Amino acid sequence: DSAGWDNAAGAWSSSLHRATTLAAGRLIDLAEELRPITEASRVIDVGAGTGAATLAIAAKTCATDMTATDISQSMLDNIHLPPPTTTSSHHAAPHSSRTLTRQTADVHHLTKTFPPSKKTYTHTFSNLMLHVLSDPLTAVHQMHAITDPAGGILALSLTGKPIWMYHLWQLACQTLDPTFLVPDLFPTRWCTPQDLSHAFHAVHATDVHIETFDTEWPFANSTDFVHWFRVGGHPGIDFAVQAWKGDREMALEALGKVHDEMRHLLCLRTVLGVGRV
Q1: Which intervals of the chain are annotated as region Disordered (predicted)?
Q2: Is residue 259 part of a domain?
Q3: How confident is the model at residue 164 (pLDDT cuts 50, 70, 90)?
Q4: Helix (H) or strand (E) segment spanning residue 210
């Protein structure tokens, strides 16, 4: 619900923004291979969160008409387009010519907020959002409905397996109780290339390309990682922590040790896909 993601806004923007931005950048590149984003393009970022994809679109492309939508107003409030700098991409549109519309919306009912009869989008992005939904296919159909039927681009990404944050917490707690398992908050979640293939097939997309993309681990050290668990705010992390009924401080101490032992293995794995509608 919106309240849970409102509480996550600060934690999300501070800890995961860079990693999700890297995934967004690759997704944008794939989308532009099918249809370049120009000053005439109409671009929407669905489930924008704190704006990783929105900001990457602004930095990498000529887009001037951009919309960011999320169920959480607090997430959207964290999106601020920076002024142009000398290091900005030469492809980026002048800051003064851009418009960014921030609009809360439920992804399962996008067409109520964005009626296709009034406007469709040349490029519809969803970056690392579908895997937290109980009904992702409905969301894909809704995104398809607001995308330009004359060759609009649908660009989607998922968090792949394993989700190391939960896996490390489980391993840490198992040093104290070997029987402990983290309950799956999203038991039917999409996380594979096959899931995205199913999504694009369901909306009859063409020129589909799907790939797995690994980005750097978003936490500099075990102190930063453990702090994220201790402070809380992210619904999934809070759910995992609350499932542990033993001594929480002992589990957090174990988490730091497990993180250090496995640091060389860690990355944020994503699955990216683009298609033409």
Answers
A1: 79-105
A2: no
A3: confident
A4: strand 206-215
